[in-house]
Amino acid sequence: MTRILIAGFKHETNTFSAVPTDLDAYRARALYYGDAIAKQMRGTKTEPAAFLDFCAAEGWQAVTPIYGDASPGGAVTEITFNHFANTICDAAIDQGPFDAVMLSLHGAMACEHTEDGEGELLARLRAAIGPEVPVAITLDLHANVTDRMAELANIVVAYRTYPHVDQVEIATQAAGLIKRALTGEIKPTSHVRRGAMLEGVDSGRTTAPGPMTEALHSADLLLEKPGVLATSVCAGFAKADTHDTGPSAIVVGNGGDSRFGAMAEKLMDQIWESRHRRTVETMPIDAAINRAKTAVGIGGPLVLADFADNPGGGGYGDATNLLRAMIEADLRDAAFASICDPGAAQICWENGLGSIVHLDLGGKIDPRYGAPIAVRGTVTALTKGQFTLKGPMAAGVHIDMGPTAVLKVGGIEVVVASERFQAHDIMYFQHARIDVTQKKVIVVKSSQHFRAAFQPLASDIIVVDGGGGLTSGNYKALTYTKVRRPIFPLDLN
Question: Residue 220 class from Cβ within 10 Å (0-12 exposed, 13-18 middle, 19+ buried)?
Fold first, then answer.
């Protein structure tokens, strides 16, 4: 019987974050072992679910030692990295041999001891399984793909959508190439090219025609050339200060012909030429609040996206600048998800439903990005913070925000959570009995993923960037020391 090793070790590392990513960070989001992986992930719109379904359909035996996914944040601790790497490699040795390996990774993981987490993991895995076993990896569209990753993985394929709604399709594509490799039909190799860019292809947005959709079209045309098995365009993750940060083009070819690398290079030339084009322009806080004051809720709520403090990009989730402006403007019929403040959530729980509390909300981790707000509010809901995502992105995935409260401050219902999560699904509101369709204004701490669920409901969308925060588009406000120089937009125009 064909035996496949399946594992997942995902993290998008914002190296400017002061919050290290340890095993507790994985436990707060997703950390499963052995049979629990199938129990928790089957039926979800995720890569592990697709891998398992593919194996079942082919009659392959799947061995699943570990799957973990932590919220974006600071560097993965060496202890945490070793736990995952050792669990995967020990399984490869102790439960092997395996015919192939399929890994769900992010591609922008930096660790305390190495800035190329995925490359290091693959190196240790290769030492365990040898050079001949085919390895397929799936990556986030925002991966910072290194040469080491491409050299050690036969098959590298990345999401093609942002918001990410195609995990199943991409994982199925990777598994299909593994099947062809096992039959001897193909001998896949991966080729990656990068440019002098920190960010590009409109940050990977695919919700409107633009640089990313054009680059993907060009990548698709390459599939018509002999020997090309798969192509990917990665926007990169600019909040990682690493040597290889930035957009990349990947071509998976049948064999090691140098022409596959030349194709990737030509695709990168196109990405460079489009570097100044954007499909979304951000708005400063004051201007966004002025628009929100006139929101009437006809045709759906006005959606404000807190771009500068996006937990989905490593933001702390407790920055208060936008919320403070909303309170000062006395906005009505508004809802905000969420402020990560476990202490404030606890106070709400201790005082109980219907109580009036006075507390300092948010701004605990780094007040530079928005100091705590002294608020007086009414506790209108208390929840365990546990629910299942409805999608379109990651439908079926279980979320646990820990003890959560809704604090009504004036006309604003604020979801106060104990764990950091990006509010990309209506369930971040709905689980707390907030009906977003009945609000004039809703605010999500998200930059782009929210569009999958909220754009169909919204009368209008404004992406708000106050210029500060760990996920702000103001790159020159951060000190980069490891990226290759010169690089766009820090040095090059």
Answer: exposed
